[in-house]
From TrEMBL:
It catalyses: L-cysteinyl-[sulfatase] + 2 a thiol + O2 = an organic disulfide + 3-oxo-L-alanyl-[sulfatase] + hydrogen sulfide + H2O + H(+). This is Formylglycine-generating enzyme. GO terms for biological process: post-translational protein modification. Gene3D superfamilies: paralog of FGE (formylglycine-generating enzyme).
Length: 371
């Protein structure tokens, strides 16, 4: 198979390049949580090229073709909070998108620009394993990782047995490994399962897999502008959804990495891997884990050049090769992936999947079954 090898080489190269950067970053000793602080690094390993898959999936798994999900059916404790409301009403408004003090300049976090956003609805939670299973049960949908037969997993999460079966990538790829049989049901490979984390975010979902789910649920992916506006929760020019300090009052507000990346994951915030989608305090709009935990796909194509002109409901460039993802993940550490900020962004091809990639959906109007 030629395709997996190409993907692997890409990852090896990227990880190697990023490792050099990590060495530079960790010497800087930046202080935490100040606007305009400098970080660096990459997300590494998710941008993998794959033969283009199913834009047709959106049609096939559309609401018209399937029975929509029932409110709160089988979703457990996560959705029973907030009076059973799955989606938050996000008020129309204008906000400052991006920043003039980019922490990761090459990501196109800048310039700061005024952006008007219409009223819309945003999922309060990352889509959970239970919700994704409901979709799969109802439609028979197969994710791209399942169809391609592998996905990328962070090395520190793998059992010795799975690791010993991987002979590629050892020389230079430090932490992302292509694992046969890794997919949303088996996040760390065939000997892992999700039975004790049905309320955690679904992982290993490609952009196409996310679009298929949202379409089935009568929703859509948020644009990057909608995502960032709702991430800021009504605050202006703050780094994080709750303010500028990473640990206000010594409290953890986000599931990221504590300890030295990638060697020592201390799990001080309570989670070495993902957390339940309702863990940690919500932001001002009632959104949980909008940063950290799982990366979240948006509908926009990736581009790093932005006009500083005021815009209304921007939808990103008309075409590109990668899609924008936002918010960082449980693997993010400031020395390497300072992307758990609202202005931060990263990219992946639409058919990429990995053990830290998930999503949530948005909608212009509440689907009937949620009213
Ligand atoms: C999906 O179907 C399986 C097998 O019928 C069932 O055990 C499981 O509870 C279903 N999942 C959800 C979330 O409804
Ligand atoms: C990991 O980091 C913690 C906190 O800095 C330290 O106490 C611990 O000894 C480290 N563990 C390893 C295996 O390096
Ligand atoms: Ca953590
Ligand atoms: Ca998230």
């Amino acid at each position: 198979m030629a395709a997996p090898r190409r993907r692997l080489l890409w990852v090896v190269f990227t990880c190697w390049a990023l490792r050099l950067r990590v060495a530079v970053c960790s010497e800087r000793g930046e202080d935490e949580g100040r606007p305009g602080g400098h970080g660096d690094g990459g997300s590494c390993g998710c941008s993998t090229g794959r033969a283009s898959g199913g834009e047709a999936a959106a049609q096939k798994y559309s609401l018209e073709a399937n029975v929509p999900p029932q409110p709160n059916d089988g979703l457990g404790s996560a959705q029973s909070k907030d009076e059973g409301r799955q989606m938050a009403s996000i008020p129309a408004g204008v906000f400052t998108m991006g920043t003039d003090e980019p922490a990761i300049r090459q990501d196109g976090e800048w310039p700061a620009r005024r952006v008007h956003i219409h009223h819309f609805y945003m999922d309060r939670y990352e889509v959970s394993n239970a919700e994704y299973e409901k979709f799969v049960n109802a439609t028979g949908y197969l994710t791209e990782a399942e169809r391609f037969g592998d996905s990328f997993v962070f090395e520190g999460m793998l059992s010795e047995q799975v690791k010993s079966g991987i002979h590629q990538a050892v020389a230079v790829a430090p932490w992302w490994l292509p694992v046969k049989g890794a997919n949303w049901r088996h996040p760390e490979g065939p000997d892992s399962d999700i039975s004790n984390r049905m309320d955690h975010p679904v992982l290993h979902v490609s952009w196409n897999d996310a679009v298929a789910f949202c379409t089935w649920a009568g929703k859509r992916l948020p644009t990057e502008a909608e995502w960032e506006y709702s991430c800021r929760g009504g605050l202006e020019n703050r780094l994080f959804p709750w303010g500028n300090k990473l640990h206000p009052g010594g409290q953890h507000y986000v599931n990221i990495w504590q300890g030295e990346f990638p060697r020592n994951n201390t799990g001080e915030d309570g989670y070495k891997g993902t957390a339940p989608v309702a863990a940690f305090p919500p932001n001002g709009y009632g959104l949980y884990n909008i940063v950290g935990n799982a990366w979240e796909w948006t509908s926009d194509w990736w581009d790093v050049h932005h006009s500083s002109d005021e815009t209304y409901n921007p939808k990103g460039p008309p075409k590109g090769t990668d899609r924008v993802k936002k918010g960082g993940s449980y693997m993010c550490h400031k020395s390497y992936c300072y992307r758990y900020r609202c202005a931060a962004r990263s990219q992946n091809t639409p058919d990429s999947s990995a053990s830290n990639l998930g999503f949530r959906c948005a909608a212009d109007t509440l689907p009937d079954y949620l009213k």
